[in-house]
Amino acid sequence: MNILLLGSGGREHALAWKISQSQKLGRLFIAPGNAGTAQLGKNINIGVNDFENIGRFAIENNLDMLIVGPEDPLVKGIRDFFQSEPALKNIPVIGPGLKGAQLEGSKEFAKDFMLRNNIPTSKHFSVTKEILHEGFSFLEKMNPPYVLKADGLAAGKGVMIIDSLEEAEKELELMLEGKFGQASKKVVIEEFLQGIELSVFVITDGISYKVLSEAKDYKRIGEGDTGLNTGGMGCVSPVPFANNNFLKKIEERIINPTIEGLKKENLDYNGFLFFGLMNCNDDPFVIEYNVRMGDPEAEVIMPRLKTDLVEIFESVTNKELNKLTVEFDNQSCATVMLVSGGYPEAYEKGKIITGLEKVKDSIPFHAGTILKDGDVLTNGGRVLSISSLGRNFKEAIKISYKNAALIEFEKKHYRKDIGFDL
Ligand code: AMP
Ligand code: GLY
């Protein structure tokens, strides 16, 4: 099978790493990819939202499958684009169409979907400029902190958690005036959920689903979960507090009703589904849906996945996922993210990375890296995700830290406390 994978982060390197181990793989292309994916397939210089050129490439290279890594092309409708073109409509796309991708593309859509399908989530109220005063009354009835979310995609920056009512009201106005552009012309106000976060991953063919294990992501830049939010500074899978009893609650109360809801509402969903959850006193609540794998969650889930990933994708496109057994390694996997100094605020790119060849017992998944004249250079905020397997999460983390220290680039930074709270 000839496969094109869209994206250029650590998630895509982890997916490419797993795909490249499949007996079923012919050629693997990654668009645009990074210095890590270049070792596993051929990087193609096409952007993830350049549908016309992706389509042309698919035809010229006899593609058998398109796998979409990030949310943006899904929310913009890449699947519908393929289905509407006679020469492309027989190429299966892994990822939902426009309608299904609304689960991530619109916070309001996701909240209303959960309400309609009795899926536990926090109370909410959607506000536009016209009904600003109703937004204020909703805020006044709630307890702090106040959660304000841009309805649309805002590159992971559209969520504000604010302690004072006065500030929350000011922020609500700023958002509705376009602080996050079109994405915040509608704002969803939510009740704050107190608890510990985790995420659970599922792959579905629209009829049945397989759980792809769970993970815990460390989102803040600073140790002890302090400072600004990032794309993710480290991750652990499985999650020690997610025992069988808790996972059963997630499946019964959240995953099953979600898949049934997708069917009932004809959302024609296939691909990954990411459940961002809060454990509130041993009861799971949905914080958000994402319509893709997580990053860095993919970097701890792919190394634990024993089943052939291309076979899983094939079962998805044939709608025969129920016939497949998906197996995971019992070992734990941890990843530590090496980032550019300054991230998630301003940072420099183009720093030479050395020491990658010294890493023996971890997998250095590339995120923001690029090959230039034989050197691997930094090319983003998150640079490398150092993943390791171990008998337990502590052992896995220790191996990742040992190898994180062997890799050098100017202003390298990483959190030293991944797993501190487990
Ligand atoms: P989201 O983009 O919806 O995942 O929100 C980003 C982060 O904000 C989440 O990972 C949580 O840490 C936090 N968050 C979002 N919604 C809530 C909520 N209702 N209660 C508590 N924390 C939240
Ligand atoms: N690590 C969180 C995400 O991928 O959205």
How far from one another are the termini? 41 Å
CATH architecture of the domain at 3-96: 3-Layer(aba) Sandwich
Strand percentage: 25-35%
Bound molecules: adenosine monophosphate, glycine
Number of helices: 12
| CATH classification class of the domain at 3-96 | Alpha Beta
Could you tell me the radius of gyration in angstroms?
21 Å
Arithmetic mean of pLDDT = 97
Task: Identify the overall geometry.
Answer: globular
- Helix proportion: 25-40%
Largest sheet: 9 strands, antiparallel
CATH topology of the domain at 3-96: Rossmann fold
Helix-and-strand structural type: alpha+beta
Q: What would you call the quaternary organization?
A: single chain
* Uncertain stretches of 5 or more adjacent residues: none
> Based on DSSP secondary structure assignment, what is the total number of beta strands?
22
Keywords:
422 residues; alpha+beta; Rossmann fold; Dna Ligase, domain 1; five-stranded parallel β-sheet; binds adenosine monophosphate
Characterise the protein shown here.
This protein is an alpha+beta fold. Among the domains are: 3-96, Rossmann fold, CATH 3.40.50.20; 124-190, Dna Ligase, domain 1 (2-Layer Sandwich), CATH 3.30.1490. The chain is built from 12 helices and 22 strands. The chain has helices spanning 10-19, 51-60, 72-75, 78-84, 98-105, 107-116, 132-141, 165-176, 244-264, 297-301, 309-317, 393-404, and strands at 3-7, 28-32, 42-43, 65-68, 93-94, 124-128, 146-150, 159-162, 186-190, 196-204, 209-217, 220-222, 226-229, 234-237, 271-280, 283-290, 332-340, 363-366, 369-372, 375-378, 382-390, 412-413. β7 (146-150) and β8 form a beta hairpin. α5 (98-105) packs across α6 and α7 (132-141) runs antiparallel to α8 (165-176). Residues 217, 232, 290, 294-295, 297 line the site of glycine.
